[in-house]
Design brief:
It contains nine helices and five strands, in the order H-H-H-E-H-E-H-H-E-H-E-H-H-E. The chain is an alpha/beta fold. The chain has a five-stranded parallel beta sheet, sandwiched between helices. The radius of gyration is 25 Å and the shape is elongated.
Length: 209
């Protein structure tokens, strides 16, 4: 019996020696997540790609409420003055959801969003615009206040877009420098309710509304 056990042990040892060595792990840049990170860095403005220093954030609680959003509807409406890191928080959320979670996204400065929407609408193809952007898991509209207020077509398009976000439960991050009271005066109760209460949950940077 001892001889048999020694023989089995020797055979196992030989087998282990003959097995190919484990392949070293892939470098991060070659993993699926690494590829998404490289893609994200091409899209994200350089100033927002760096990890923020929490101690230097103007409103860390609001920042992390936005940046740790899980990507479900409704998305956050980041509200507050300039230099409050609202846009940085939005990009931080997108980076995490896309790089780690694989969620696709489309982002727009508001002027580009409206220009593109109105181009489709002028050809009676507004539904095609919505179909195009329904395929993305997440949407991000930055600086919504910077519409051309001289054109009623732009304000109308803005209402249509957020009505679509709400009715179709599209996860969307939006940033604005102006509080709810300002929007009520500018766009009325119905749009303000859509923007602040229906299509998003509101995150106030630097205090309450």
């Amino acid at each position: 019996d001892l001889h048999a056990r020694d023989t089995v042990a020797e055979e196992l040892s030989t087998l282990k020696r003959d097995l190919p060595a484990e392949a070293p792990p892939l470098p991060y840049s070659l993993t699926p997540e690494g590829h998404r990170m490289a893609d994200f860095r091409k899209t994200c403005p350089a100033e927002f790609c760096q990890k923020p220093d929490a101690a230097r954030l103007p409103d860390a609680n609001a920042f992390f409420t936005v940046s740790r959003w899980q990507g479900a509807f409704p998305g956050p409406l980041a509200v507050g003055a300039t230099e409050m890191a609202k846009t940085r928080a939005a990009w931080s959320a997108l980076g995490s959801l896309y790089v780690r979670g694989g969620k696709s996204f489309a982002w727009f400065p508001v002027k580009r969003l409206l220009t593109e929407f109105l181009k489709y609408e002028s050809k009676d193809l507004a539904d095609e615009f919505y179909r195009q952007y329904s395929r993305f898991d997440l949407l991000f509209v930055d600086d919504i206040d910077k519409v051309n207020w001289s054109f009623e077509s732009e304000t109308s398009a803005l209402f249509q877009f957020y009505d679509w976000v709400y009715r179709n439960h599209r996860p969307c991050i939006t940033t604005t420098n102006n509080r709810e009271s300002w929007w009520k005066k500018k766009m009325g109760e119905a749009f303000t309710r859509r923007l602040f209460n229906d299509a998003h949950f509101t995150v106030n940077f630097g205090g309450t509304a």
